[in-house]
Each structure stands twice: as C-alpha cells, then as structure tokens.
Design brief:
mainly alpha, three-stranded antiparallel sheet, two-stranded antiparallel sheet, 75% helix
Length: 367
C-alpha cells in the first residue's frame, strides 16, 4: 500500500515538472488530457486521504491493542496481587490459628499446673495441720504429765517440809541466821541508794538515743525500785516469829559449781527471783523491739541491777541476782522476738513456764 503511494507521488512530480518546463503536452492541448490529469490528481489526493485515514485507523488500532494488552496485564497483575494477598491472609490466618492453639494449650497446661500446685498446697497444708495437731496433742500430754509430776513432787515436798518444820533449829543457829539477815538488809539498803543514781544516768542516755519505748520502761522500773525502797524503810521485821529462822534446810541447789542449802522460804524467794527476772526481761525485750533497736539483754540496766523484788531476806543478794538474770535473759528473748518459748502472756502479764522454772532452779531435796 505504501509503495503504490510513493509511485503515484513520483509520477505526479514528473508530470508537474514537464508542465513547467514547456516540454511534454502543449498548453493548448486537448481538454481531455487536462481533465484526465485532474482526475488522476484528484484520485491521488483521494488515495492519500484514504491512506492517511487508514494509517490513522491502523495507529489507533495498534494503540487500542496496546491499551488492551496493558489492561490485560494490569488485570493479571491485580489478580496475581489479589491471589498473593489472599495467600498471605490464609497463611496469616493459619499462623494465628496455630498461635491460638498453642496459647490455648499453654493456658490449659498452666491451669493444670496451677491446679496441681493448689492440690499439692492443700495436701501439704492438711499434712501440716495434722502434724501440728499431733505435736500439740503430744505437747499437751507432756505438759499434763509434767504438771502431774510437779504436783506429786510438791505434795512430797510438802510432806517433807512438814517433817522438817517439826525439827526446829537450835537457838544459836537461829541467832546466826538473824545476824546474817540484818547484815544483808543493811547492805541492800545502801545498794539501792547508789543504784538509783546510776539508773538516772542510764535513763538520760536513753532519752539522748531517742529510744522512747526503752526510756518509758526504765522510768517504770525506777518507780518500782523506789516503791520497793520505801517498803523496806517502813518494814518492821519480826525475826522471832518468822519461821525461816528456825526451819532447817530442805533444798540443795548448785550455782557456779558450788552447792548451797536453803529451806522452803529461801527456795520461794529464788523462784520469785526467776519470775521477776522473766517479767522485767520480757518488758525490756519488747521495748527494744518497739524501738527497732538491736537485741542486747546485757545492755539493759534491769539486767545489770537484777535486784527488783529483792528485800534482803532469806537468801544472799548474789544468789538472787544470778537467778533474776537467768529469768531476765529468757524473758527478753520472748519479748524481743514476740514469742512464747519460755513463758506465756496472759491478762497483760508475762509469766515463766513451770517446767522452765524447775530446770533453772533444779532444786534437790535433802533427805
């Protein structure tokens, strides 16, 4: 098609040239020839128009084909992308499903473990309660047996005391005891006056350390000592009618590797020393715990003094101090640690267990 157009254009150019140069057909040639040339020229122009139009149609067709191909490619790409997204969504959903299954399995395992732990804890708690009840029952039985033994011992001791009381000491022995007693009382009164000054210094030191609970306790201890001193000053002791001075010794006890003897009145005084020591130690230990102070029973003035409850009668002050401190140490441990290992706390007052008291004194009957 394109070749024919070029040929026709070339022929038209040749004819035009011949017309201009005067060669070829004369200007006055026949009219038919001119008309024929015109028709050919019109045909050529018409042909060129048709060819141009055909080219435009062809180009448009090619563009349409390209656009169609692009649309097809875009659709394919969109379809592939959609398939890819669908695949990713399916994979994501599958992974999420697997994760949910794993989490569900993990929760089930955790619940099973928790249930097992709870069952184990319940079994252990039940076992602990059972063992505790058994220990409490054993302890109660042991306390009852010990109480029965103590009652039997006291009954036996009472019988022996009654026998011993019928055996009065000689007049010379009584006078010797009275002289020792008077000497102890005089020395103790002097000691009380000296110790009050030391206690005042100790109380001031506690105030400087801001140990207010211990400060209040020591103030109370000082008040009790003053009351004790006042009672001694007003005391009118009847030496002639006091059974201690004519009652023979019925107990033996060991202190510091040496044995000492006393009668029931001296033994009762030593028991009071241990009990008073336990009470004061409990209060001192609780005060240190309230002050958040370190545990140190030996730093307490009451422990160093160890005279509360002592009146100078029946036993010497060294023995009283020793057994007071034995009770104080144990009372301090119970008070500081808020427990009842050596005693009990009832009606607002601490008291030592009878079994511990008997172990500390360890009196032996003199037969």
């Amino acid at each position: 098609m394109k070749i024919n157009i070029r040929d026709r254009l070339a022929m038209a150019l040749v004819i035009s040239t011949l017309s201009l140069t005067g060669t070829g057909i004369a200007a006055d040639g026949p009219r038919e020839t001119q008309e024929e040339l015109k028709r050919e020229k019109d045909d050529k122009q018409q042909q060129r128009k048709e060819d141009q139009q055909q080219e435009r149609v062809q180009r448009k067709s090619e563009q349409d084909q390209k656009q169609e191909q692009q649309r097809v490619q875009q659709q394919q790409q969109q379809q592939e992308q959609k398939q890819k997204q669908d695949q990713q969504q399916r994979e994501s959903a599958q992974r999420k499903s697997e994760q949910d299954q794993k989490q569900q399995q993990l929760r089930v395992q955790q619940q099973e473990q928790k249930q097992q732990q709870q069952e184990k804890a319940q079994r252990e708690l039940a076992q602990d309660k059972k063992e505790l009840r058994a220990r409490q029952q054993q302890q109660q039985e042991r306390i009852e047996r010990q109480s029965e033994q103590i009652q039997q011992q006291r009954a036996q001791q009472q019988q022996r005391q009654e026998q011993i009381q019928r055996q009065r000491l000689s007049q010379q022995q009584q006078q010797q005891r009275i002289r020792e007693q008077q000497q102890r009382v005089a020395q103790y009164r002097q000691h009380l006056e000296q110790q009050e000054r030391l206690l005042q210094q100790h109380i001031r030191a506690l105030a400087q350390q801001k140990r207010m609970a211990q400060y209040r306790y020591q103030q109370q201890y000082l008040a009790r000592l003053r009351q004790q001193e006042l009672s001694l000053r007003n005391d009118r002791f009847d030496y002639d009618n006091d059974p201690y001075f004519y009652t023979a010794s019925s107990y033996r006890y060991n202190r510091g590797g040496r044995y000492y003897e006393t009668n029931q009145y001296g033994a009762r005084t030593l028991r009071q020393a241990v009990n008073y020591g336990f009470e004061e130690g409990y209060r001192a230990g609780k005060a240190d715990r309230d002050d958040r102070w370190r545990s140190s029973y030996k730093d307490s003035y009451a422990y160093r003094d160890a005279n509360y409850g002592y009146r100078g009668y029946y036993v010497n002050r060294t023995d009283y101090n020793h057994y007071f401190r034995e009770g104080f140490q144990r009372g301090y441990d119970d008070g500081f640690n808020s427990r009842s290992q050596y005693g009990r706390f009832a009606d607002g007052n601490p008291s030592m267990l009878d079994t511990i008291l008997s172990q500390i004194l360890n009196f032996q009957d003199i037969t």
